Fold this sequence. Notes:
Blueprint (H helix, E strand, L loop, with lengths): L16 H11 L7 H16 L16 H14 L12 H15 L4 E4 L6 H11 L15 E8 L6 H17 L3 E8 L15 H4 L6 E6 L5 H4 L3 E4 L4
Parallel strand pairs: 1-4, 1-5, 2-3, 3-4
Helix pairs in contact: 1-3, 3-4, 4-5
Amino acid sequence: HKLGAGGKNAEGRHPMSVPIVLGIAHVFYFRLPSSELRSELMSKLRLETSSLDEGTTGFEWLKPVGVMEKIVLSTQKGLCSKLVLEEGVALNAALMENLYVTLVCICNNVPVFVVGKPGSSKTLTMQVLASNLQGAQSPSPFWRKLPALYIFSYQCSPLSTAVGIKHQYEIACNYQKKAFRTMTVLLLDEVGLAEHSPDMPLKVLHGILVRPKVAVVGLSNWTLDAAKMNRAICLQRPSP
């Protein structure tokens, strides 16, 4: 849409209004572990938009209840509708949210931790992304414009070591240097289990998560300590 006075389009909406809502959702909304806390965040955002002068900023259309939630949900649905799922796989709320947040983070090399109880589609998320993002061989024409996804997986356990995690990261980085049209991912599966190691191997993540050379995805059944979680996007699935 063409922009009019004050940087608004023909509908009176600021062109940055939707990106700002999606950005806030990615950083804060998805981090909250319950539906109640997520609703409270959106309520506070609506109060902020209500304090704006009517008709002057292009953000006023976000004031009605449910508008910002609808933006987030419709964006998730729009992106996930392009994914091809195997027969018998249902695109439920948990899987759709996991796919959306993880895909955006991978494409932008932003580290992400996906936290949820067993059965919240964490592993399935990576399987679906890997099967869809295959570069020119992707099953859907939409994804053929993006690089292929190549995953280096590291299975964390109480026996994990900092040397082992860093070695796998370096392998992924070296592969990315030589790869053509490829997005390399370091997948830390069951990363929370490594917290039980007496060697505290996850301390190595403090350096890795700051401007990583490849995408980093951590899957865990519980949240890690703040020193690690604050260095990445965090998705916590609310309990059903």
